[in-house]
Design goal:
about 270 residues, alpha+beta, 8-stranded mixed β-sheet, 12 helices, 10 strands, globular
Length: about 270
């Protein structure tokens, strides 16, 4: 009986150690503790709110300490639903991460794109990066999907950009070399990925989905400031008072999301000092 107890005890301890190593170990990445929009209070015309935020971002988008980063994970269930409901003519074969990222954020995570191509995006060409790890068939299908998705409902934009007028699209491959923090906004997804699809987002290549999402809050927030000094530099008292804006650092946002059950409890560990 004693021997069985000792064996059981050893098994339990071993499982705890394995769990700690696998699930509690910090990922080998740097996760900046950016400032972003946490909440607002407004009951007026949201089309005005969208436009004010868009104009605000446009003024500061070229600052190397201001970023757009947001992500979505399209899993098998979502792809299956697209097929069953004929949402797209071309649907990727496998689940994938989709990053919406500004040129400034690409530099932060060391993804290098020729400046001439970045300039095209700044002028309004909708630019996508596909990881070079995909095979040619998957690349072709992904290109077709991205083109279709880019044009889909572009005309709905109340905020007209160069892209919504011209619908110019460019898709290139990029060399993957790191694990990138996924900025997860729901439970059960991985916090790193080494081969996301990336939409290189600028004020002139947005359509309604991005321009209206600039006011997103919490873990869904798009606009991020590297530090408090940058946030203060661009703080607009009139804007803040009109919409009752509140900004927090990423670690606080994720801690609050963890408490409310929106993300996995382990996400807190990513932002431990």
């Amino acid at each position: 009986m004693k021997k069985k107890f000792i064996i059981s005890f050893i098994v339990i301890i071993s499982l705890i150690i394995i769990f700690s190593l696998v699930f509690l170990k910090k990922p080998n990445i740097t996760v900046p503790n950016y400032y972003s929009l946490y909440e607002f209070y407004y009951t007026g015309d949201f089309s005005e709110f969208y436009k004010d935020f868009y104009d605000w971002y446009k003024k500061m988008e070229n600052d190397s300490n201001v970023y757009i980063i947001n992500s979505s994970y399209y899993d098998e269930e979502i792809l299956k639903s697209w097929k069953e409901n004929n949402v797209y003519k071309s649907i990727p074969n496998n689940p994938f991460w989709y990053f919406t990222a500004s040129p400034t954020y690409l530099k932060q995570i060391n993804i290098n794109v020729d400046q001439e191509i970045i300039e095209e995006a700044i002028k309004g060409v909708r630019l996508y990066l596909i990881p070079d790890t995909l095979n040619q068939e998957d690349i072709d299908i992904m290109k077709s999907y991205l083109k279709e998705d880019a044009i889909k409902n572009a005309e709905k934009s109340n905020i007209q950009t160069t892209f919504t007028k011209n619908n110019d699209i460019k898709i290139i491959t990029y060399r993957t070399s790191n694990n990138y923090f996924t900025w997860p906004n729901n439970k059960g997804v991985k916090i790193t990925n080494n081969a996301p699809i990336i939409y290189v987002c600028t004020s002139e290549n947005m359509k309604y989905f991005e321009s209206e999402s600039l006011i997103a809050t919490g873990v869904d927030s798009l606009i991020k400031f590297k530090d408090k000094e940058t946030l203060d530099k661009y703080s607009d008292p009139n804007l803040s008072q009109k919409y009752n804006l509140k900004f927090l650092q990423s670690n606080e946002i994720y801690k609050n999301a963890t408490k409310s059950g929106l993300v996995n409890w382990g996400i807190n560990r990513v932002f431990d000092k």
